[in-house]
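QA checklist item 7 of 12: single-chain prediction sanity check.
[x] sequence parsed
[x] length recorded as 317
[x] structure emitted
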Amino acid sequence: KVVDEEGNPVDMEMLSQLLQQQQEQALGFKMTKLTGQHLNKSQLQFDQQTNQPIISLEFNDEGKRLFAEITERNVGKPIAIFLDGAVISAPTVNEPIRDGSAVITGQFTLDEAKELAMRLNAGALPVPIELLSQNTVGATLGKSSVEKSFLAGLIGLVLVSLFMIIYYRLPGVLAVLALGFYALLVLALFKLIPVTLTLAGIAGFILSIGMAVDANVLIFERVKEELRLGKTVKSAIDSGVKHAWVSIRDSNVSTIITCVILAWFGVGIIKGFAITLGLGILVSMFSAIVVTRMLLYLVLGKKVGQKMWLLGIKKET
């Protein structure tokens, strides 16, 4: 609640109008009766000849009459549009406009035109903003949320690692080592770029770990199939990775395209999620095809790798 020097309550709407009037006078503009209440809508459009973004204005009946009078008196002069006491646009009147519809042209970028249309629509709302309450969230709450997210991700990683080791045995151990390398490489990239790990970013990182596990599962299953056919270890690895790569590539590329779209058009939380997920998937493709493949060559080429039960392959009876 705002009060004056004598303790009397101040009408915020009248105060806002007074401040705007003072601002207009300081800039050399004269206040008119045309306000945001007379604007029905403002929207982004594109010029049919130049394809440049423009902003269309549509006034109600009273606004149509007032706008016609203003434009008739100010041909060749700028008309300033104020929002909260600040000029947001000052287009020049080219000719009298009597039909209640106008366009604002200029060298707008797409984002600038969107923002101007949004601010014009916001100014058209006939509702004054009142502060009802104000709360401050402590930094410890955000820190606690991040720590819990990291803990959840760590628990998930441990459970996935146990599953990989129990089901795939020796290749599962190699997959866990590859995932450890993958996690370190991704975190190093986040530090280098840099990328701020918000809650959404952590979610994207954890999801990318799942995508990396999927890639390892596809490779191991293909290698096991090749070994069952009687191929040598090296031949089975080469053939398994080659056949699994097609599925890995297609699924990951489609996800990366989605991440690019979200990062380009999204803001805030959505953008952070898309960036961390996209970077994680790129690294997971490298980890699965290069790191996991090298580990398979190193270990399965030894005598220990010749034991089928260590590879999760049951002997046929």
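[x] summary fact logged: Helices lie at 12-26, 61-73, 110-123, 139-168, 170-192, 199-228, 233-265, 269-300.
[ ] second reviewer sign-off
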